[in-house]
Amino acid sequence: MRTRILLPLAVAAALAGCAVGPDYERPKMDLPEVAASAVPAPQRWWASFHDPVLERLVDEALAANRDLRAAAARIEQARAQAAITRADQLPAAGVEAGRSRDRASERGAFPLPPSAIETNTNRASLKLSWELDFWGRYRRASEAARADLLAAESAQEAVRQALVATVARGYFGLRALDGQVAVAERTRAGRRVALELLERRVKAGVASELDLRQFESEVRAAEAAVPALVQERTRQEGALAVLLGRSPRAVMAATVERGVTATPDAVEVPAGLASDLLRRRPDLREAEARLMAANARIGVARAAWYPSISLTGAFGGESQSLSDLFTGPARTWSLAAGLLQPLYGGGQIQGGVDLADARTREAAAAYEQAVAQAFKEVRDAIAAQTTSREVLEARRAQEQSLSRALDLARVRYDAGMTSLFEVLDAERQLLAARLDALAAERDRRDAVVDLYLALGA
Predict the structure, then answer these.
(1) Phi-psi group of 317: left, alpha or beta (phi > 0 → left; psi -120 to 50 → alpha; rest → beta)
(2) Is 339 part of any domain?
C-alpha cells in the first residue's frame, strides 16, 4: 500500500521540473555607444546644488508625498498577490469536525431496535488536497506574480525619482519667479519716480504732454506686470506645497522657504552608459518586468490544454460516543486521485493562449519603445546641458549691453538729441532681457536636473 501511494508522488516530483511556455529572454536591441566619463552619478544628486533648503524640501517630499505613499501601497498589494499565487503550488490542509443527533421513525418499513431510534454521530478528520503542478501552470503564475512585484518596486523608484526632479524644478521655478517679481517691482518703482520728474518737466515746459502720456502708458504696463508675476508665483508655491505632501491648512498658507542655489558647471555622464542605463533607470526595469510577467502568463494559458491532476486524502475518526472517537475501531481514512482533461471549450483555451501571446508582444513593443525613449532623453539632456549654458551666457551679455544702451539713451534724451520713445524702447528691451536672463538661469538648472533624471540617478 505504501509503495502504491509513494510511486505517483515520486513521478509527480520528477515531472515537476517541466513547465510549458517560453522562458524569458530580453529582446535584442541595437544600443548606441556613448563616450562617457568614469565618474558615477551621485545618489543624492540634488546636493550638488549646495542649497540646504532644497535638500530639506526634497527630504520633506520623500517623507510625505501622497503619490509616493500610494506607490508603496501598490508594492504591498503586489507582494500579497505573489504570496497568494505561490500558495497554489503547495498542498492545502484543514481539520473538519462535526457532531450530529438523528432520530429514525419507529414505524418505518424496517423496524429498528429502540437503541437505534436516536443516535449520536461524532466526526473528526484531517483533510489534505493537492493539485499536482505537472505542467508548471502555478510556477508560471508565481513567476508572473514575482515579475509584477518587481514592476511595482521599480514603479515606486520611478515615482521617487520623478518626485525629486519635480520638486527641484518647482523650487528653481519659484526662485526664478522671485527674481522676476523683484525686477518688475524695481522697474515699477523706477518708472513712478521718473514719471514724477517728467510731470515737473512738462509743467516747466521742457517736455511735451505726448511724452508724458507715452511714459504713463509704460508705468501702467509695469504696474500690471507685477501682480501677474505675483499670481504666477502664488500658484507655483501652492503646487510645490501639494507636491511636498503638506496638509490642506499648510497648502492654504503655502509658505515655502528659499535658499541660495549654486548651479553645477556640468554633470559627468557615467561610463558604460549603454549597458548600465537598462539597469539604472527604474522605468526601464518596470517595462521589462511587465514583459517578463506577460511572457510567464503564456505558460499559464498553455497549461490549460493539459490535464489537471489532483490528490485528496482524509484521516480521522467517526463514532457514536465522543470517548471512542480517537480509538482504533473508529478510525476512517480515504485516498483519491482525479484527472480532468479538457476536450472542448468553444475556443476558450486557444483564445486565452492567443490573448497571452498578444499581450506579450504588446509588452515587448512597450519595452523597446521605453528603451528608445530613454536614450532619446539622455541625448536631449546632454545637448541641453551645453546649449542652456550658452543661452544663459548670451542672455547675461545681452542684459549688460542693453543696460549700457539705456544709460546712453537717457543721456541723449536729457541733452535733447532724441525723443522719449528711444528711452522707453531701451527700457522695455532691458526689462525683457532681465526676465529672460532669470528664465535662462532656471532653464540651466532644469537641464542639470533633466540629465540626472535621464541617467536614472
Answers:
(1) beta
(2) no
Per-residue pLDDT tens over the stretch 69-96: 999 999 999 999 888 888 888 888 899 8
- HSE-up (13 A, CA, CB side) for residue 274: 7
Under the phi-then-psi rule, with left for phi > 0, alpha for psi from -120 to 50, and beta for the rest, what region is 162?
A: alpha
Distance CA(428)–CA(421), nearest Å, equals 10
Residue whose C-alpha cell is 533648503: 53
Look at residues 132, 156, 150 and name the one whose alpha carbon lies nearest to residue 24: 150
Query: Which residues are bridge partners to 336 per DSSP?
Result: 312
Largest CA distance in the chain: 137
Return d(Cα 327, Cα 333) in angstroms, integer: 13
CA angle, residues 278, 284, 288, in degrees to nearest 5: 100
Residue 202 domain boundaries: 18-91+136-311+352-454
The pLDDT of residue 156 is above 50: yes
Residue 425 lies in a domain: yes
Q: What is the DSSP letter of 53?
A: H
In the prediction, which pLDDT does 270 show? 58
**192-212 residue pLDDT tens:** 888 888 888 888 887 778 878
Across 267-289, average pLDDT: 76
| pLDDT range class, residue 9, cuts 50, 70, 90 | very low
Cα dihedral 436→440→441→443 (10° resolution):
140
| pLDDT above 70 as % of the chain | 92
- Confirm if 419 and 440 have CB atoms less than 8 A apart: no
DSSP secondary structure, 252-279, as one string = HH-----------S--PPPSSHHHHHHH
- Its pTM stands at 0.80
User: What are the backbone angles phi and psi of residue 311, rounded to the nearest 5°?
Assistant: -115, 135
Helix (H, G, I), strand (E, B) or coil at 130: strand
User: Domain of 428: which CATH number?
Assistant: 1.20.1600.10
Q: Work out the end-to-end distance of the chain between its first and last CA atoms, rounded to an integer number of angstroms.
A: 63
Domain count for the chain: 1
CA distances from 312 to 5, 10, 387, 421 (A): 12, 16, 71, 98
pLDDT at 218: 83
Distance (Å, whole) CA 97 – CA 332: 13
Can you give the pLDDT at residue 34? 57
Q: Indicate the SS3 state at residue 129.
A: strand
Q: How many residues in total does the chain contain?
A: 457
